[in-house]
Records
---
Amino acid sequence: MTHPSKIVVWFRRDLRLSDNPALAQAVAEKAEIVPLFIFDPYLLNHPETGIGRVQFLLGCLDSLQKNLEHLGSKLIRHYGNQPQVLVEVATKVGADAVYWNEDSEREWRTKTDVCAIEALREAGIKVRCFQSEAVSPAGGKEVYDLKFFTPQWYRFLQEPVSLRPTHLSPVQFSTNTSPLKSLEDLGLPMTTQTVPVAGEREAHRLLNEFLDCKVPRYLKSLSVATQASQNTSRLGAHIKFGTISVRTIYQQVLLKRRTATAWEQRNLDGFISRLFWRDHFAQKLRNLPRCETESYLEAFDSVPWSQNDQHYRAWCEGKTGYPLVDAAMRCLNATGWLPFRLRALCATFLCIDLFLPWQWGAKHYMQQLIDGDVAIDHWQWQSHAGVSNRGRTWFRVYNPVKSIEKIDPKGAFIRQWVPELANVPEEALRLSGSASLEYCCPIVEHQEARRRALAVLEPIKHQHQYQQL
Ligand SMILES: Cc1cc2nc3c(=O)[nH]c(=O)nc-3n(C[C@H](O)[C@H](O)[C@H](O)COP(=O)(O)OP(=O)(O)OC[C@H]3O[C@@H](n4cnc5c(N)ncnc54)[C@H](O)[C@@H]3O)c2cc1C
């Protein structure tokens, strides 16, 4: 078989040189490589796009560019309809093939890939797609069924990582268009969030920091507002944009596990299980693309959810009158990050206490989270709204007042993010929500709102359980 002599390697959510199967294959074929990234207006203008996340993406691209330059190559950035741009660039550079790694974050992505393959083949250009994460092409239910998915996940993650290239050929290509290096170049407003350092080197630094320093405190600090940010890996945004592969992380964790204490092993296993759920959500969304916008259990989409825009705005802005919810929402808006337990608390507050559709909450999270990832975000939202659950804890409703005791026992997180409460003593904070604090009157009464919501939702759950018998 003759190998292509010039290959466009199309980077998407795999912004790394290490363990990048498409790039490694092009290198193995000794081809001249043209690295390309395309900003698509559909994604940039999508209602769920977060400006802070785009800023992080730009940082990942700068880092990729530097790493490519270090090897003698360069990254070409383009803007436009992806199938069209691919054909244009491949034709202009005289490439005989385009290689890329699979990505299925949105149904749009899968459909666009089909169009890209068609357009390139029509132009006589060969296409090869590679699997860079443990997510298989969509098939029947058995693809995401845990009996099938679990062994496949472990098998994939144990395969050797793809080699990092040590040298690449120079790229002769120039564009007269915008450099596409800033939010302004992309026609987007500035971000007010503090965006973390991006890029491959930083992803490996975070992983090492996690393995060397954070492991013993990982599980215990997951639910404590003031500890989680220092003791979880903070790799979410890196995994989302692929500056490090889950396979690399998994293999490093296994290495660490060999010499770890029993306690550390427990924490490492807890960490691996979260990576597993991440990939499982991605697989499920790939198989059930309608769940990007609809509930897994369709009956819940017919519920007369509230459409109270004032409540929604109060939740988004952190003005619900519940200090922990408000602190969390303000922290999310300012930093683009929240620990799991607070994401969950604010999600149930929106869906149960305010009885608003999960899609509204998921959209705001996606607009704010630097690690916003449709598959995790939307499945987590559905699970916390109870519209996808079939387990024993179908409706997990967190009490926004009692949770302070567990999540922020000294009130430090609340005081940091709700300055109106800076001088309120701990005990008073724990009583808040009962209108004892005057910074903002609670917009709903928790117990009453919970009772009303469950009166509507429980019968649908029972009906569903009955149909399953
Ligand atoms: C309503 C809601 C929405 C969420 N939206 C997102 C999202 O858009 N993107 C996102 O990455 N995570 C999301 N999560 C999951 C979780 O809160 C974050 O992954 C985690 O807090 C990120 O911090 P970290 O990178 O330090 O994670 P760590 O705890 O160090 O975990 C490592 C990685 O494992 C994955 N992971 C961790 N926890 C979970 C989980 N519960 N489910 C699935 N995967 C997990 C993530 O990729 C994470 O980066 C959401 C959770 C909830 C309740």
Note: The chain is about 50% helix and 5% strand.
---
Amino acid sequence: MPSGAVHNVINTLSLLAVGSAAGYATQRGLIRLEAGAVLSFCGAFMAGTYLLSPDLDLAEQHVSSKRNWGWLGFLWVPYGWVFSHRGLSHTWLVGPLTRLVYLALLLCGPVLLLRDPILHWQLDGVTRGPLYDLLKSFQGFWLRPQVARDTLIALALGYYLSQWLHLIADGVAPDMNVRFNRRRSR
Ligand SMILES: [Zn+2]
């Protein structure tokens, strides 16, 4: 199986290829892309490649996607315990979802802790300008989280494409066969 570094190279080159094709199609007037959607797509693709790779099912060992979390890498160790390598984590639809759900669970703690301080944040002391606008919109999003449909689609496409490229490189066919009993090999 390809190592983490090989997966990263395959994914990054693929993103460059998709980007070049999209750039060419845009120039020819074949498609029209919103900057926000492009940014969301690329961001989700990079996060999926470097931070949320299927190989986090080996997080109890040293894998590149765990290392990229820095000192927070230990947070993924329980994920590695729960999911056997190349099992449910390496399926096409549910696998990527398991990591999003796990991430959401990880974020529950900080969100609950920060909820009140952020809602009662006084911005009076902050001079009006880019920083003020940023904090204000963050507060607004916190109060009423809403993401535009196009942004959501771009995020999902970017994330899933990064995951599927990993599975293709691993030789996992797009089926729902969950291989729980496979011997643990990278
Ligand atoms: Zn893998």
Note: The chain has a mean pLDDT of 86.
